[in-house]
Structure formats: C-alpha cells, structure tokens
Amino acid sequence: MKLQDGFIALDEFARGTNPIEGKLLLKAVCTYLKKFNSISLISTHYDEILLEDVDYYQVVGLKNINFNNLKMQIDLKNSQSTSKKSIDILQENMGYILEKVNKETKVPKDAINICKLLGVDNEIIEIADKLSENNYKGDEYE
To answer: Positive or negative CA dihedral for 17, 21, 27, 29?
Structure first.
C-alpha cells in the first residue's frame, strides 16, 4: 500500500492507555506524520507533545474568568433555587474557541478550581490541593 498526502484527524489518540505510554505513543505518531506532506489535526489532553515545526492551538477555557466572581454567581443561583445548575453557569462562561499558542505555553490546570465551583466535598478538594502542591515543581507537574 502506497502512502499518499492527505488530511489526518485524530481525536484523543491513545486516551484509553496509561498517561505515560499514551503520551509517548502520541508523540511517536506526531513525529511519524511530520514526514508526509499532509495536514494532521490532533486533539489531546496530553501535554508536553513538544515538536519543532508544529502549530499548537489551545481551547481558551476559563483562562479569562475570575473564579471568585464565578463562584459568587453560582452560589447566588443555588440560593435562589432556580432550575439553572452550576454546570450550566460554568458552560456559559467556558471559552470554547481555539487560540494559537507556542510550545512553551503551559497547559491550564483548572480541574481543582472547577471541582470547587461544582461543590465537590471540601475534604476532597483539600486532599487534591495537597497532592498538587507535593507534585508541583516549578512550572511542571511530576
């Protein structure tokens, strides 16, 4: 079979494997695809797939949101017993557009903040915060 130029789209490649091997496999596929005169569009939650001559895009997400203001908005809606749920308010504030970033751009780490907004038990949040502090080294997670 002869490989030809084309368009390749991969959505969450290797998502069902462990994060270490998944990241390695995805990086291997990206390196392999670079040798073809094709366009590849790959979505992933894996960070640090850092290759030269690759364009990177990232969902804006909650980057421009003040979490304290958002928490007050959610708490107010919850106290009014409206049908609007915390997740609806969160989705309304989520930026789903893509912005071009460079390979040095850090991946947002907002999962713990989102759990706080959604009312996850404080003890779980405290444990996650502590684990995060223990695993956080400079600008990278171990």
So the answer is: negative
Tokens 């894996």 identify what position? Answer: 46
Cα atoms found within 13 Å of the Cα of residue 7, Cβ hemisphere only:
2
CB 57 within 8 Å of CB 100: yes
DSSP state, residue 3: -
Q: Which of 41, 32, 51 is nearest to 10 (CA)?
A: 41
Q: Is 47 left (phi over 0), alpha (psi -120 to 50) or beta?
A: beta
Count CB atoms within 10 A of the CB of residue 24. Answer: 15
pLDDT tens for 122-140 read 999 999 989 988 765 544 4
Cβ atoms of 103 and 54 closer than 8 Å: yes
Domain ranges in the chain are 1-54, 59-142
**Is the model's pLDDT at 142 over the cut of 80?**
no
Element (H, E) at 35: none
